[in-house]
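Hi Prof. W.,

I finally got the XRE family transcriptional regulator prediction working! I wasn't sure whether to trim anything, so I left the full sequence exactly as given:
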Amino acid sequence: MTADWLEILRTAVAQRGQKPVAAELGYSRTTISLVLAGKYAGKTDAVATKVLAVLATVTCPFNGQEMTMADCRAFSSSRAPTHHPLKLTHWRTCRKCKNCSKGE
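And this is what came out:
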């Protein structure tokens, strides 16, 4: 698990506050406060995974836009959009990206 998740969490909290970030992640404000203070009694693996999935962003190689890892993974694991040539080109590019989950 990458250590960058804690910095991502700190940045999000600094920009938006603990309560909104905690709600977005599905954790209490207290849990986020304890994690940030290094005083969380449990393992932080689940929090780290959630932070990376919900708050971490990547740049899409097709359109250059920032998107969350959750959105990236959802698009990359979706079925091929054969109804629209541009969306199909995007999907094919997505399937070659290092962030692609390919339905995993």
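The chain is about 55% helix and 5% strand. Does that look reasonable to you?

Thanks,
D.
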